[in-house]
Amino acid sequence: MAGSEAAWQAAHMGIKVVIHEMRPKVETFAHQTGNLGEMVCSNSFRSDDDEQNAVGLLHWEMRAANGLIMAAAEQHRLPAGGALAVDREPFAETVTARLKAHPNLRVSYEEITELPDDGHWIFATGPLTSAALGEAIQRETGAERLAFFDAIAPIIYADSIDMSKAWMQSRYDKGETEEERTAYLNCPMDKDQYEAFIDALLAADKTEFHEGETAGYFDGCLPIEVMAERGRETLRHGPMKPVGLTNPHQPDIKAHAVVQLRRDNALGTLFNIVGFQTKMKYGAQTDVFRMIPGLENASFARLGGIHRNTFLNSPTLLDSEMRLRSKPNIRFAGQVTGVEGYVESAAMGLLAGRLAAAEILGQALPPVPQDSAMGALIHHITGGAEAKTFQPMNVNFGLFRPVDGLKAGRRGRKDRYKAYTDRAKDAWQSWLGNFS
């Protein structure tokens, strides 16, 4: 998705582009064809509501920028309520045909196994980056900055957490500043709540690894249900240990267990549940995690999981235009940069293609506006996210800067989302005006 969109955008700006595609000569366990833009999971681009949904807003911005992926999706749209779902095979055939027909484009079918020292390159290899290229990226960036398995903890919108039950405190009040001493959000459990939580965790439906993506767990990212299977007290002595914490709502009562959440973005609008990577199915996750005091009405920006997903620690490796800091002739785009989903991947391809073409043409551009959906995503992956806990992210309104004067919480959500989308559309249209 990302490579196809990047190539389309750059070619439309007058740049000669070569797409290097290793399939079908070099296969992956997930792909079935050599088509560009092949969909290997869902056939949905999710919500198409550009006023109340961040994904729908991203659709709108891509359409405004003459996006190939959105045009092909519209051409092969299937009935799906308010979502944009497509007939996947003709969709990929259309993407491939339109790219091959473009006078500024050609496709070369071979595997790229090294990071070139010269020329302008965009690497949009997705979650199934080949082993040889993965090794080359590791050599350039450092092994610790490229993840091959994605241990994802759930992320929750801050304004959906009940602060009459939760509180902010770092364990043992550690930290030099007040911000550090209150860096974690804590949700307490008594013994009965903890035992019921463990029962639900053990009984929940779990997903299994797909063929080709199995891997032994390492202790740093054990799924919480695997820890619970090792003993009912394991979690209470691991990520749910209650020591060093005092509940200001009930200072005389010692919690039996405590679930901690850590801020996940610079705005403080998103929190991830510390140590809660999981292979529970999505429906089970929402049921089980809403048993946690303070999270009964939690809204999830992302649910947890562990799966094959090659991605960079982009906040440390990429600059604000998605260039590799150590090799600025190379850009990365798509899921390998730490975005999640077809739409987000294609959107980052769109930006990479335009930014690369502008650089080649000598066009000076202002930064991608942070108040657009595109800008919120690129800001998150290149600096807005916490580098130590960076994990792939879908677009969501938690990545957007607040609009002054609008109330938080569920009751004000409709007006708040409309304000976000109105502001984003203005910002995006203004930025697109910089392209001749």
UniProtKB/TrEMBL annotation:
It is found in: Cytoplasm. Its cofactor is FAD. InterPro entries: FAD/NAD-bd_sf, MnmG-rel, MnmG_N, TrmFO. Its main location: cytoplasm. It catalyses: uridine(54) in tRNA + (6R)-5,10-methylene-5,6,7,8-tetrahydrofolate + NADPH + H(+) = 5-methyluridine(54) in tRNA + (6S)-5,6,7,8-tetrahydrofolate + NADP(+); uridine(54) in tRNA + (6R)-5,10-methylene-5,6,7,8-tetrahydrofolate + NADH + H(+) = 5-methyluridine(54) in tRNA + (6S)-5,6,7,8-tetrahydrofolate + NAD(+). SUPFAM superfamilies: FAD/NAD(P)-binding domain. One of its GO terms (molecular function) is tRNA (uracil(54)-C5)-methyltransferase activity, 5,10-methylenetetrahydrofolate-dependent. GO terms for cellular component: cytosol. One of its GO terms (biological process) is tRNA methylation. Its EC number is 2.1.1.74. Residues 2-363 form the MnmG N-terminal domain. The keyword Manganese does not apply. Pfam families: GIDA (PF01134). Belongs to the MnmG family. TrmFO subfamily. Catalyzes the folate-dependent formation of 5-methyl-uridine at position 54 (M-5-U54) in all tRNAs. This is Methylenetetrahydrofolate--tRNA-(uracil-5-)-methyltransferase TrmFO.
